[in-house]
Design brief:
Order of helices and strands: EEEHHEHEEHHEEEEHHEEEEHEEE
Number of strands: 17
Mean pLDDT: 93
Radius of gyration: 20 Å
Helix content: 10-25%
Largest sheet: 12 strands, mixed
Number of helices: 8
Strand content: 25-35%
Shape: globular
Low-confidence stretches: 104-108
Structural class: alpha+beta
Length: 331
């Protein structure tokens, strides 16, 4: 079962369950967040809560996205309590692009390896520990909060000071923290971890800056475990035609870390275990149009598709106008 959130014909919030490609409204439900809280309170699965409420009329997910009525598949009543974070260099092959961006001149002897390649090798050697053991920690980054999340179908804004506006097709884990401070995983969703690769390429220490951008995930939240093998397609459409496309792989069969290891190294921090908070944690990618020399333009449309996750995630690129930030003293 997959879940979506959207605005109905009256403009009110609604939730639908998607089974076998058919989306039907969940009766008396206005948010996945509330459904999750009810499941935690009752100590049952979210599917049980949905079954008890029952399903109503069918809705068209693709039409809802085209009409701008889709919401992200989970949100928080206070967007500041939704964390967007991620890990990099987690996929087999993911080091190649990063290494090329950061590589110093000369032979790649062990002492001359970039930090990216060193971290990737650490993941290969220790990212899949035996059950009950802790593996090597991955690269980690903060991306933003609920205010930086763009619903599926709507343009992703790139700030005027950005030097690049590039997609990153990824899988995101979706979590809510229960009343005892335990992370509870709802499932997974397609994600576009939109980044500024030109800024990152200037210096590896600019990675943090390059990740502070808007992003999108969904449109469907896939309940349950992540398939071991995920084979999707990342595309850029320009003027309605495919301008660039390339397959992307995910799932543990294609990763240098286990999902459990990546989850541990995020939630080991008490900061990320506050009851009621929502976490959208992106697991990385090995596929970037930037690596093929692509420079996106305003109006280009990103499409990230994988049949196991339902409808594709689509967002256009939009560039924001420059703004002046004035720092005013308060003394």
């Amino acid at each position: 079962m997959n879940l979506i959130q959207f605005h109905d014909d009256n403009g009110d919030r609604a939730v639908a369950a998607v089974e076998d490609g058919v989306a039907r409204i969940v009766r008396d439900a206005t948010s996945v967040y509330d459904l999750a809280l009810a499941a935690i309170d009752r100590q049952v699965g979210i599917g049980t809560i949905i079954a008890e409420k029952g399903l109503g009329a069918e809705v068209d997910v693709v039409a809802l996205m085209a009409e701008g009525r889709l919401l992200s598949p989970i949100d928080h009543p206070d967007p500041a309590h939704l964390y967007v974070t991620g890990t990099g260099l987690t996929h087999l092959g993911s080091a190649a692009t990063r290494d090329a961006m950061h590589k110093s001149n000369g032979a790649q002897a062990e002492e001359n390896l970039t930090d990216s390649m060193k971290m990737f090798r650490m993941g290969l050697e220790g990212g899949k520990p035996a059950p009950g053991h802790v593996g090597v920690q991955p690269e980690w980054f903060y991306k933003g909060n609920g205010f930086s999340v763009v619903p599926p179908g709507r343009p992703i804004p790139s700030p005027a000071f950005a030097r690049d506006a590039g997609e990153e097709p990824e899988i995101a884990g979706i979590y809510i923290i229960d009343q005892d401070g335990n992370p509870r995983r709802l499932g997974f969703a397609l994600a576009n971890e939109f980044s500024d690769h030109v800024t990152e390429r200037v210096n590896y220490l600019f990675l943090a800056h390059s990740k502070l951008r808007a992003c999108s995930f969904g449109p469907e939240l896939r309940l349950g475990e992540l398939p071991r093998n995920v084979e999707g397609m990342s595309r850029i459409l320009r003027d309605g035609k495919v301008f660039w496309e390339k397959p992307f792989l995910s799932g543990e069969d294609n990763m240098s870390h286990t999902i459990a290891n990546l989850e541990y190294h995020h939630f080991k921090y008490e900061l990320f275990r506050n009851p009621g908070d929502v976490h959208v944690h992106m697991f990385g990618t090995a596929t970037l149009s930037f690596a093929d020399g692509i420079k996106t333009e305003a109006g280009d449309v990103f499409e990230i598709a994988e049949p196991q996750f339902g409808a594709p995630l689509r967002n256009a690129v939009a560039w924001e106008e420059a703004e002046t930030v004035e720092i005013k003293p308060l003394y």
